[in-house]
Design a protein that fits this description.
There is one protein chain. The chain has about 150 residues and is α/β, with parallel strands linked by helices. It has a domain at about 15-90: Ribosomal Protein L15, Chain: K, domain 2. The protein is built from 5 helices and 6 strands, in the order H-E-E-H-E-E-E-H-E-H-H. The strands form 2 sheets. Strands 1-3-5 form a 3-stranded parallel sheet. The radius of gyration is 33 Å and the shape is elongated.
Length: about 150
């Protein structure tokens, strides 16, 4: 049996929720002609990007010799500086905006409003008589016995 299966599992691993980006360095983008729109489709066709990933990240390793129009999800600061210095432009892809969820205060407020609309008088639930009788019996049992 492999060693990894023999060892106990410990702790929590959040790797299932990690976002994997395809990494492209600026030195690799020199293969394209000046003024080319570099996007995911073009990178796949040129075999610079393969596999499944969330998006593309451009890193600043290498020098860019001519201006390109780059479309990516993430761009490092060094890469942004070098692309703009070479006369190129950067277009970030649209990130889907998360729907705004109701805050805790809003939920409590709407619940209170709904309660106020249904019954103008807020009634307090009384304790049942059986519970009161049970408590009275338990108090009586606690008295000491003489032997």
């Amino acid at each position: 049996m492999p060693l990894i299966r023999r060892l106990p599992k410990r702790g929590f691993n959040n790797a299932a929720f990690h976002k994997h980006y395809a990494i492209v360095n600026l030195g690799d983008l020199n293969d394209f002609k000046a003024g080319t729109n570099v996007n995911e489709q073009l990178l796949r066709e040129s075999k610079l990007v393969r596999g499944h990933f969330v998006g593309i990240k451009i890193l600043g390793d290498g020098e860019l010799k001519h201006g390109l129009n780059v479309e990516a999800d993430r761009v490092s600061a060094a890469a942004r500086e070098k692309i703009e210095k070479a006369g190129g432009t950067i277009t970030l892809r649209d990130v889907p905006v998360k729907k705004e969820t109701a805050r805790h205060e809003d939920v409590n407020l709407t619940a209170k409003q709904a309660l106020a609309e249904t019954s103008p008088k807020a009634t307090v639930k009384k304790r049942s008589t059986t519970q009161e009788l049970a408590k009275a019996k338990s108090r009586k049992k606690k008295t000491s016995r003489k032997s």
